[in-house]
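User: Can you recover a sequence for this backbone? Please restate the input before giving your answer.

Assistant: Of course. Working from this structure:
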């Protein structure tokens, strides 16, 4: 069953100035996460429980536990899925080897890979066909990186950090291109690229930015908030790359302290000592209800003045996987685009 957080009772201790919360926007769910989560819900409605999901559908423990309660079963590899069952591939994408393994087991696969990740996969395939060496900036072992590298394993070298850019070797410096994991820090990625270009002046760029719009927008928003914040609280799970990056970005751009929490009951009283301004944001796989619980906890500690700091508007929506765009009767489903059902009367 989903975890039920304990009630938070933070103390309203005095501070030198006025208490307030700067709430970053955009925050929380992006279009790719929305699509993936609704894909699992729709698969459960359409095919019945259980529906299997390879890896976590998105990197958020609350989302995963809620889907488990509805009948989703999360597995590490497709060989754990009974033959002939339905399996959903997570938003982070999979390699062709995983797709083939699912096919060999007769599984009914539903691909919930974020379209922005799919774009990077296609770039890897295209550059490999043209015999380029691909320097994939990302974290070795992350599911997204494994999926992208699996598209062209003989052509991909993973670069984990700016420091690794100083030591990586390539076969032909005149035929090298960089791609990146979509959820990285924009600043650190460009530092890595700049170091690579110093060593390989003919390094080519991807045809379009690989770091996703949502990752960039959330980082831009927290940069603005952090400049005025004594404390930043990022709601997100430990295995969420973009959530972890938000903590790092907040500290880099002026926050005196920054912490990541999954739930409001993880906020510690001592974090608030002497704090006038608290910045709050959330990673791209975090439902808004978890942010509201943090705001409620802060309200109990005297931080009732909540000011939204908006730096961008987001209206991107992605179609659901093709298997789920119609209901059981063959009619187009109301949530076929983006996962959001239209309002009554719309």
């Amino acid at each position: 069953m989903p975890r039920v957080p304990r009630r938070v009772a933070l103390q309203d201790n005095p501070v030198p100035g006025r208490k307030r919360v700067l709430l970053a926007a955009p925050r929380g769910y992006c279009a790719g996460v929305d699509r993936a989560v609704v894909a699992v819900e729709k698969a459960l409605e359409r095919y019945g429980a259980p529906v299997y999901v390879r890896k976590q559908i998105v990197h958020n423990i609350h989302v995963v536990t809620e889907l488990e309660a509805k009948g989703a079963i999360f597995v590490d590899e497709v060989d754990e899925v009974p033959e002939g069952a339905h399996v959903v591939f997570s938003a982070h994408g999979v390699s062709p080897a995983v797709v083939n393994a699912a096919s060999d087991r007769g599984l009914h696969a539903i691909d919930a890979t974020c379209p922005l990740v799919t774009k990077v996969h296609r770039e890897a395939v295209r550059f490999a066909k043209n015999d380029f060496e691909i320097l994939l900036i990302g974290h070795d072992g992350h599911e997204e990186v494994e999926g992208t590298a699996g598209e062209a394993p003989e052509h991909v070298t993973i670069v984990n950090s700016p420091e690794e850019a100083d030591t990586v070797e390539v076969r032909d410096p005149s035929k090298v291109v960089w791609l990146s994991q979509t959820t990285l820090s924009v600043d650190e990625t460009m530092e890595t690229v700049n170091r690579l270009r110093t060593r390989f002046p003919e390094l080519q760029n991807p045809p379009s930015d690989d770091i996703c719009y949502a990752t960039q927008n959330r980082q831009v928003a927290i940069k603005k908030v952090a400049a005025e914040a004594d404390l930043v609280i990022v709601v997100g799970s430990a295995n969420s790359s973009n959530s972890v990056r938000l903590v790092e970005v907040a500290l880099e751009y002026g926050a005196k302290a920054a912490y990541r929490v999954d739930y409001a009951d993880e906020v510690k009283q001592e974090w608030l000592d002497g704090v006038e301004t608290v910045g709050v944001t959330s990673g791209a796989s975090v439902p808004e209800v978890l942010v509201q619980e943090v705001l409620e906890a802060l309200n109990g500690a005297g931080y009732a003045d909540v000011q939204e700091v908006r730096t961008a508007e987001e209206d991107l929506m992605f179609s659901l996987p093709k298997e789920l765009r119609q209901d059981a009767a063959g009619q187009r489903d109301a949530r076929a685009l983006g996962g959001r059902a239209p309002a009554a009367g719309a």
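That completes the design. The first helix runs from residue 31 to 47.
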